[in-house]
Design goal:
It is a multi-pass membrane protein. The chain is mainly α and 288 residues long. It contains eleven helices and two strands. A hairpin with a 5-residue loop joins strand 1 (68-69) and strand 2. It is globular.
Length: 288
């Protein structure tokens, strides 16, 4: 066959444009749909993600009944005081922990290697994870707020400024947790060890970040360590929304420090992005 004949055979029909892949935004939503279906099929994981903050709030509210007192004799019961911490730890569970473990498992079972061989852009894969995390965090938080309001009579904020603060702390905290989860996903050596590596990190941060115990009551060295990590600041930002202003005096520096909340969460968002780009692997260490 001559070169002219080869060119003629290879050329697409006249008037027909070559097929193009959908845009990154469309592929991200498609991938998010796949992630959501896979998540819903894991019923035990669904129950754990949604029930864990609610169960912990119920347990601690039942065991502890001492009110937290601020300036001018203002008191709040345990459920109200620790609701912000439960919201923060729920975001951390659905973001950092879930993503770090799921990516490690998908790398171990060959899912990432197969996806890498497809035209799916890496940004769409990670975007699907972030969209799933955001959707799950919203549903989880709505469930927790409903239980707190209906079962424990926790008053909800009435000021639009408080809800605006809640929106940016929630969004920034969710994005930070998700990105850090991607960065940390390369630490476990296998999918089997992922839970054993990731879960203790989250548990330790919960105990030192004012989630299960009042942050001001923790030892000074523990407060210093917790202040390095995002969960402490995420919980503090949520306390500024759900607690009365009189309890601000209980915080370190007697302030909600919302500027520091934004700065630390943003810094960890950047750190997570850098670590994710530099350390993320599509294959296992022993897979070449």
């Amino acid at each position: 066959m001559s070169a002219v004949q080869q060119a003629t055979v290879a050329a697409p029909p006249r008037g027909r444009r070559p097929d193009r892949l959908p845009g990154v935004g469309t592929l991200t939503l498609v991938r998010a749909g796949v992630e959501l279906r896979q998540f819903l099929r894991e019923r035990d994981a669904v129950i754990f993600v949604f029930a864990y903050p609610v169960i912990m709030l119920a347990i601690f509210s039942t065991v502890f009944s001492d009110a937290q007192q601020g300036a001018e004799g203002v008191e709040v019961d345990f459920a109200r005081y620790f609701l912000p911490g439960m919201i923060a730890t729920g975001i951390m569970l659905t973001g950092f922990q879930s993503i770090a473990i799921s990516i490690a498992v998908e790398r171990d079972d060959g899912t990432l290697r197969r996806l890498r061989a497809t035209p799916l852009p890496a940004t769409a894969y990670f975007g699907g994870k972030v969209v799933l995390t955001l959707a799950t965090s919203v549903a989880q938080t709505v469930t927790l707020l409903a239980v707190a309001a209906l079962v424990y009579d926790v008053p909800m904020p009435t000021d639009a400024a408080d809800w605006a603060t809640f929106a940016w702390v929630f969004t920034l905290g969710t994005a930070t947790g998700a990105v850090c989860g991607v960065g940390f996903s390369s630490v476990p050596r296998s999918g089997r060890s992922a839970s054993a590596v990731v879960t203790p990190v989250v548990l330790i941060l919960q105990f030192i970040s004012g989630v299960f115990f009042a942050f001001y009551a923790l030892p000074g060295w523990m407060q210093t360590v917790a202040s390095v990590f995002p969960l402490k600041w995420l919980a503090q930002g949520m306390r500024s929304v759900f607690l009365p202003p009189e309890l601000e005096i209980l915080e370190v520096g007697e302030s909600w420090q919302l500027g520091a909340v934004a700065a630390v969460l943003t810094a960890w968002l950047v750190v997570g992005l850098v670590l994710g780009v530099r350390s993320f692997r599509w294959r296992r260490r022993d897979d070449g």
